[in-house]
Amino acid sequence: MKCVIAVDAMGGDFAPHNTVLGAIEAFHESGEFKLLLVGKKNAIIDEIKSNNLKFDEKYIINADEIIDMHDHPTETMKTKPNSSMAVGAKLVKAGEAHAFVSAGNTGAMVVNSIFGMGRIKGVSRPTLTAPLPNDKGGFTFLADVGAFVDSKPQHIFEFAILSKILIENVYGIENPRVGILNVGEEESKGYKLTSDASKLLKDSQLNFIGNVEGNDIFKSTADLVVCDGFIGNIILKFAESIIPFLKSTFKNYAELGLTNKLKIGMVKGPLKEALKNANADNLGGLPLLGVDGISIIGHGSSSPLAIKNMVLRAKVMYDKDIVNKIKGTLSDYAE
User: Fold this and answer.
1) Residue 111: enclosing H or E segment and its boundaries?
2) pTM score
3) Residue partners of 300: CB distance under 8 A and separation at least 6
4) What CATH architecture applies to the domain 1-119+284-321?
5) What whole-number distance in Å separates Cα of residue 11 and Cα of residue 83?
6) Positive or negative, the Cα torsion across 74, 77, 79, 85?
7) What does the pLDDT look like over 80-120, one tens digit per residue?
């Protein structure tokens, strides 16, 4: 069956321009999936025409309401039932799409994905899992990075299971090393949440290596680091600020004189290549693992490139059959 990917054309700070451009670019680049654009139909058509793009209007799904970044996530279920986000999630639930992609309000996307698609049996709380660059040229994965801001030990245990399935099947890392984020390596460190979660992880079939600290993430001490969403989101946003900070630093240095500008020019290309794993646009969005469908969530400021990569990431998730693999293996690690 050909993969069907629905895109929230109205989600994000620069929608529908960036979303339409990025989604259609992914569609033409791949050509191996069916694309649905969800949102205000006339606005989407205007964007397509003004950019001289080719896309069949019959694959535009009209949704009259838009969830913005200031809307309360749970309230949108009642106040905006016909939003592009709600309609997109329901397309997956109805089997009319296999994946839904949005750069809109993260909290609202989480809520609409959970209630629109449903949770996989055995999952009490889905997680957002993020790949962060490490010193081996690969990734260290962090979960949860903000699907929810509070967690119980069982939730953190489930984050590890869900993320393990993703890491093994999409990134090819067998039996990934799992660490829990803490303030020290010793078992006695931390507080009740980390202590209780550690016991669950230690007694499971996971390759649990114990506590890891913040500086271990970039050092690739573990393949997967688990924590509650409040802490994980802070770490993710700090990590994402590094590239913009470096760009500003280099720009300020170059402005000091011609010699400095020439130096920056000489290293700009190699630096860009070396830091490509740290570029959020190249990675696209993050999968919300644990819902009964493919849900990819991106930044509100996502560029067309980021949107394109979000869509292509959804296609990879479909090709790897991640949802069914989660269903099939979750119980093995929950015993």
Assistant:
1) helix 106-117
2) 0.90
3) 11, 12, 13, 69, 103, 104, 105
4) 3-Layer(aba) Sandwich (3.40)
5) 10
6) positive
7) 989 999 999 999 999 999 999 999 999 999 999 999 999 99
